[in-house]
Design brief:
Ribosomal_bS16, elongated, S16 Ribosomal Protein, Chain: A, ribonucleoprotein, alpha+beta
Length: about 100
């Protein structure tokens, strides 16, 4: 499966990330197919640079973004934000007023 995910670069204690397209079994910092952009979490606000056209093309080909990459693609305007999943609590059965005597 092809994934869009983050590849860590930078130095110890100061990580920077590249947004890459890679095969899912490959290592995090291993082989990749294409670099789509970069992410610097140390800037205020965090700096994101993405080649939106290439990202949309890979998504149309079936590439699945990781959770972190999906948030970055939403911030860059490539993807639309998914509505949050709200789980409804199951209704408890009403306590019976007739008590067995």
């Amino acid at each position: 499966m092809i994934r869009i995910r983050l590849r860590r670069t930078g130095k110890k204690g100061y990580p920077l990330y590249r947004v890459v397209v890679a095969n899912s079994p490959d290592r995090r910092d291993g082989r990749f197919i294409e670099t789509l952009g970069s992410y610097d979490p140390h800037q205020d606000p965090p700096r994101v640079t993405i080649n939106a056209d290439r990202a949309r093309e890979w998504l149309s080909k079936g590439a699945q973004p990781s959770e972190a990459a999906e948030k970055i693609l939403v911030r860059a305007g490539v993807l639309e934000r998914k509505p949050p999943v709200v789980k409804k609590k199951a209704a408890r059965p009403a306590a019976s007023t007739d008590s067995a005597e």
